[in-house]
Amino acid sequence: MLHFLPAPLIGAIAGALMLLNILFWVPILLAFSLIKLVLPFKQVRLLIDPLLLRIAEAWIAGNSGWMRLTQKLDWQISGIGELSPRQWYLVVCNHQSWVDILVLQHVLNRRIPLLKFFLKKELIWVPIMGLAWWALEFPFMRRHSEAYLKQHPEARGKDAATTRAACEKYALVPTSVMNFLEGTRFTRAKQQRQQSPYQHLLKPKAGGVTLALEAMGEKFGAVLDITLVYPDGAPTFLHFLQGCMPQVMVHVRTLPVPQAQAAAGQNAEQALRDTCQRWVNQLWADKDALISQLIVNKNRL
User: Fold this and answer.
1) pLDDT of residue 272
2) Does residue 42 fall inside a structural domain?
3) Which run of H or of E encompasses 94?
């Protein structure tokens, strides 16, 4: 609606509306979270958690509102017709930009339960948002280098423990556990440094999927495999606010939950880990081919 305005003005309006939306909803979110903190009983959690999710969904709806007001964006979306807000989902996606999160929330809000992201531990210190992510019980993970883990082997299992603890809480109320399998945003430099075998993707990591399935695999009704494509290049967050992102493609596939297939002599844990790694590798090969196809089709138009 306001896309006729100069880009810097659109960015200022979008940024202001986004901030106002945060300042309105986060205090409400924190108030209910403090009740749950003071009264840490299962009965209280079963009452408060659905309220927190409704508040978060209203917050996301507010974001969608200012996005519609300020953005002239061509949404190409497929595969969301049979989704349910009353089912547990394991969600996996490629990662290209900070804009990915707003895109995913806009497309999936109230179609599936609230997305719960795995976040870097340092993000808890982000003003206001860190408190909001804490209130919504997003898992905060410490990412250590392999060199650090060799010197401090006791740190190796801490992220696994954090993941399991979070997933145990998610088992009480329908939740969508979200995982960017590449672990970081795609860039050509990272792709070359990794020597990634994929044209459009970084190497995927199966650890998060494995831990989520170990903790609550029986709860997940399906896997949502989401592919994000920005045909004109992945935008920065500022470019997005300024309305400089013309199109985004969101392709959703609903897949069965992978089941562990044990080889001779394998225990259940190793079988699940190996199964997830094979599954993730095939998923990423299919996703890379899909991205190529979507880009080719776009260029033909």
Assistant:
1) 85
2) no
3) none
Whole-number pLDDT of residue 200? 96
Q: What is the DSSP letter of 294?
A: H
Q: What's the CA gap between 119 and 143, in Å, rounded?
A: 10
Q: Is residue 103 part of a domain?
A: yes
Q: How many domains does the chain have?
A: 1
pLDDT at 300: 64
Q: Which strand (E) or helix (H) includes residue 161?
A: helix 158-170
> Is residue 30 within 8 Å of 136, Cβ to Cβ?
no
Of the chain, the end-to-end C-alpha distance in Å amounts to 25
In a 13 Å sphere around the CA of 41, the CA atoms on its Cβ side amount to 4
| 251: number of Cβ within 10 Å | 19
Range of the domain at 274: 74-300
118 near 215, Cβ under 8 Å?
no
3 state DSSP class of 61: helix
277 domain-assigned: yes
118 phi and psi angles, rounded to 5 deg? -85, 125
d(CA 171, CA 184): 27
- The residue ranges of the chain whose pLDDT is under 70 are 142-160, 162-163, 262-266, 300-301
Residue 216 has what pLDDT?
Answer: 82
* Confidence at residue 25, expressed as pLDDT on a 0 to 100 scale: 96
C-beta atoms surrounding 101 within 10 Å? 17
How far is it, in rounded angstroms, from Cα 235 to Cα 241? 10
Query: pLDDT of 133-142, one tens digit each?
Result: 889 988 877 6
Residue spans of alpha helices (H) in the chain? 7-38, 42-70, 99-108, 129-135, 146-151, 158-170, 188-194, 207-216, 237-241, 268-300
Residue 11 lies in a domain: no
pTM: 0.89
